[in-house]
Each structure stands twice: as structure tokens, then as C-alpha cells.
């Protein structure tokens, strides 16, 4: 497989039609924006934790507007076991391997958050009907590494696959770290050097030109698997740190304490331009977007770039409700940042052409706890109460709040699911577990900014053959802005 340096050089000289034409992905983020329109989406779909004794599955959704099965689930690949809790996903190869003509974006990697299994799904034989290729069993992972609760998967330019793991087999956060699989999905060991494991684990992103990987921190599995309890935050069972590593060396160089403004830092992304040394992390509980950046002395700093203010509310479990930023992404041209407030119910678009000063460019309400008809009332500064209008789509009321989001390569279509994690879904949106998830599409003004709901697109996971299911993360067969990394 190509090294990071070789892939970077080939990408620079090869362009879209040069020597690296046969490698997976695209030479650059801007070349990716010229890629074909998405026609399929793969969606991790969950029965674990819902009370339905069915295996989780990978759904294939038709998103081609010219197709007779547009906005329908056209295939379901059930996993061979119960209780997995499919969550996030990644690829065996992406644009980080663009310089390697022997590499192929063939296998979708599905880590199971609760069972610890990792599935490799073949998407090449039949992209519309993927098939199971291999299962990496948790016993093997634990035996060789001590790791459990796998979460984020990224391919590396070396051909290996790296996964963040959130704890040990007993759910203790101090057992977490990073798992390496080879290109045949054999367990190689841990990525980080001994004694350099993070305090808590969750997501990660690497930026090879700056020889840096940064990871975020959710919390101890033994806490979040029981549902959210504010006392667990006080007890120190949730994270507020970013961990800065040497890349690819695996040495923990710096820990950034985000403090009380950065509780539960979840999704993390560098800007897509591999020469840039800045990025963002969404801090769920405090609902802040924190920007991190490299200093002249090669150390890293952070600052709050966007703050979603909590709402004063009535008839809820707390007197104030955070937005709960559970997902965000950055357009491939690094112009716009999109975030989802799972509890408030809105999706926001920010112009980040000046990353230190994001400007709100669009907002749309597509669910949440303060929608009209809810028992929860938001309180304005003058003491009056209000609720927000949430549209129906094709006669369907939107359930839950916007959670995972995915953007088309050209930046014009934003897809959103509404399930966070089955245990938390049950706690905050019990009707979501009862009635199932959905996927909606938001039309994006990628020139001036602006968001609007597409009234012609609605994928209803409440009508699935085995009963209502929870839809979580989405991937396109050709890669996307939350899985591809450029070197």
C-alpha cells in the first residue's frame, strides 16, 4: 500500500486524471465536489435496545429522484447476531489511498458499539444489495488488545483500518484506545504507544501534513449504556478533553481540557484541506462548537466558536434544555459547517470562511422537544412561552430530533436521521423507539446560504417489515465528507 507521503505526492501531481486515476476516492476535496450525484445511501439500522428481538441491519436506500423506488429502502442486510447496536461506519479505503492503484473502496466497516463485533460488508459485488464478507469477533479483539466498545473507523493510507474503542470489556473508560486491523481485517494490535491511551475515547480525525491526530471523549461505557444521568457528569464519568497525538507515531503529545464549556466533545473534524491546521469539535452537553488550531510553536489551542444557548423550559426534566449538538460536518470546500441540535430540533448552517468567526447562514426546524403540540414550552426573555413550527412531510409528522447528518459531495443536499443511541432514544424520545426513525433531506443554498426541507423525500423506518427500526449513520458508496481524509 502507498505511504502517506507517496499518496500525498501522487495526489498533488496526478490530479483527477493523472497517474493516480485508479486509486479510490479523489485527488482533493474540490475534485470530490465534482463527483457524481449520490444514488444510494447505506444506513446503519438498529433493533438492539428497542425490545424487538431482531438483528440490526444495513439498509440500502434509493436516493435517485429519477428512480421508481426513490426514498425507499430497497435492501436490508441483517447481521448474524442479536444485540450489536450498529452505530458508526467507515471504509477500508478512501481518498487517503488515492495514490495507490491497488486499493479499492470495497468494504464498509461496521463496528458494533455494544457487542464489540466488527463487520466487513462487501459493497462491490452488488452495490444495491451488499453482502457480509467477514466478522471480527470481540473475543479476539479483547484477547489481543483488551479493547471493547468500538466506535469510529477510518482507513489509513497504509491499507490498515483504525478504530477508536471506548472502553474495556467491563465498560471502564481507562481501558480504551485505538484498534488496528490489517487490510484483511485481522487484528494487528493497538495503534497508540503503551501508556499513551486517552482518558476517554470517542471520535478521531488525522491531518498527516501536520503529523497530528486528535481524538475526542464521550464517556465511560458503564455510564452511557445505562442512559444519561447528570450525576455521572459530576462523578467524572464523561469527558471534556481533546487528545493530540503524533501521526503516525501514536504518542500522546498534548491533552486539551475544554473545561465546563466543552462537556461531552463528540464528533471531531479537521478542515478538509490537508494543509489547514484547524478544525472543530461539537460539545454535546454544553452545545458549543469548539475550534482547535495549531500555534506557531506546534502546540494546539482551542476556543469556543459557536454557542447554542440553552432554552429555559417548562414541563421538562430540567429548567434549562441544551441544544445537544450530536453531529456536525463541514462541506468539502470548507465554506460551511452544519450542526444538528437533537433536543431543540433544528439544523443550522454556518459560514466558516473565517473559521474563527462562524456566521449563521441558515436554519431549519425538523423535530425536537419544543415543537408545537408538545407538552414542553420554551420561555422567552420577557417570560412569555413559545413553541416552534415543524413541517409534516408527505403527511408524516417528524419524530424525535435531527441527529446524524450527511452532505452530498456537491454540498447541495443534506440528509438527516433522528436516532442517537437506543438507550438515549428511549429516555428522551420514547415515541421514536415505538414508531421508528426516518430520513429527511434538506435542500441547501451552497452559494449564499440557506436551508429548506425537501417535501418530496421521506424514508420511513416505522414501516419496516420486522417492525419500527432506528436509523443512525449514513454513507454513500463513493465516499463522503465525514469518512474521506486527504493526505
Automatic annotation (TrEMBL):
InterPro entries: Se-bd (IPR008826)
SUPFAM superfamilies with a match to the protein in the record: 3-carboxy-cis,cis-mucoante lactonizing enzyme
Keyword Transmembrane helix in record: no
Similarity remark: Belongs to the selenium-binding protein family.
Coiled coil: none
Name of the protein in question: Methanethiol oxidase
MF (Gene Ontology): selenium binding
Keywords assigned by UniProt, alphabetized: Selenium
One Pfam family linked to the record: SBP56
Amino acid at each position: 500500500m502507498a505511504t502517506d507521503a507517496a499518496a500525498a505526492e501522487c495526489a498533488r501531481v496526478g490530479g483527477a486524471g493523472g497517474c493516480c486515476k485508479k486509486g479510490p476516492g479523489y485527488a482533493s476535496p474540490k475534485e470530490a465536489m465534482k463527483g457524481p450525484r449520490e444514488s444510494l445511501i447505506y444506513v446503519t439500522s438498529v433493533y438492539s435496545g428497542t425490545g424487538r428481538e431482531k438483528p440490526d441491519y444495513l439498509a440500502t436506500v434509493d436516493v435517485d429522484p429519477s428512480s421508481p423506488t426513490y426514498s425507499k429502502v430497497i435492501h436490508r442486510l441483517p447481521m448474524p447476531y442479536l444485540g450489536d447496536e450498529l452505530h458508526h461506519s467507515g471504509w477500508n479505503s478512501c481518498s487517503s489511498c488515492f495514490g495507490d492503484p491497488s486499493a479499492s473502496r470495497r468494504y464498509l466497516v461496521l463496528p458494533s458499539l455494544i457487542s464489540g463485533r466488527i463487520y466487513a460488508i462487501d459493497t462491490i459485488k452488488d452495490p444495491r444489495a451488499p453482502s457480509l464478507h467477514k466478522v471480527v469477533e470481540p473475543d479476539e479483539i479483547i484477547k489481543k488488545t483488551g479493547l471493547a466498545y468500538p466506535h469510529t473507523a477510518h482507513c489509513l493510507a497504509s491499507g490498515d483500518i483504525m478504530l477508536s474503542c471506548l472502553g474495556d470489556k467491563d465498560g471502564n473508560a481507562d481501558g480504551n484506545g485505538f484498534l488496528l486491523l490489517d487490510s484483511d481485517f485481522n487484528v494487528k494490535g493497538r495503534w497508540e504507544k503503551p501508556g499513551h491511551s486517552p482518558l476517554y475515547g470517542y471520535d478521531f480525525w488525522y491531518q498527516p501534513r501536520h503529523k497530528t491526530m486528535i481524538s475526542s471523549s464521550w464517556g465511560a461505557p458503564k455510564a452511557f449504556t445505562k442512559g444519561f444521568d447528570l450525576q455521572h457528569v459530576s462523578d467524572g464519568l464523561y469527558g471534556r478533553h481533546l487528545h493530540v497525538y503524533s501521526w503516525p507515531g501514536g504518542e500522546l503529545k498534548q491533552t486539551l481540557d475544554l473545561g465546563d464549556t466543552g462537556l461531552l466533545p463528540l464528533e471531531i473534524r479537521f478542515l478538509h484541506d490537508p494543509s489547514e491546521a484547524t478544525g472543530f469539535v461539537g460539545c454535546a452537553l454544553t452545545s458549543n462548537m469548539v475550534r482547535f488550531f495549531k500555534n506557531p510553536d506546534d502546540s494546539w489551542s482551542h476556543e469556543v466558536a459557536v454557542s447554542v444557548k440553552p432554552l429555559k423550559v417548562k414541563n421538562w426534566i430540567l429548567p434549562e434544555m441544551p441544544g445537544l449538538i450530536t453531529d456536525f460536518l463541514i462541506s468539502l470546500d470548507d465554506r460551511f459547517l452544519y450542526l444538528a441540535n437533537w433536543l431543540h430540533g433544528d439544523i443550522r448552517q454556518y459560514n466558516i470562511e473565517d473559521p474563527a468567526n462562524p456566521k449563521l447562514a441558515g436554519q431549519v426546524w425538523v423535530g425536537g422537544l419544543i415543537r408545537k403540540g408538545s407538552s414542553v414550552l420554551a420561555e422567552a426573555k420577557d417570560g412569555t412561552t413559545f413553541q416552534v413550527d415543524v413541517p409534516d412531510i408527505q403527511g408524516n409528522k417528524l419524530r424525535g430530533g435531527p441527529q446524524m447528518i450527511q452532505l452530498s459531495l456537491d454540498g447541495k443536499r443534506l440528509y438527516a436521521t433522528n436516532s442517537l443511541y437506543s438507550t438515549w432514544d428511549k429516555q428522551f424520545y420514547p415515541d421514536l423507539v415505538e414508531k421508528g426513525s426516518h430520513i429527511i433531506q434538506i435542500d441547501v443554498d451552497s452559494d449564499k446560504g440557506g436551508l429548506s426541507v425537501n417535501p418530496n423525500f421521506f424514508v420511513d423506518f416505522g414501516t419496516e417489515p420486522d417492525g419500527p427500526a432506528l436509523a443512525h449513520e449514513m454513507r454513500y458508496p463513493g465516499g463522503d465528507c465525514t469518512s474521506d481524509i486527504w493526505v
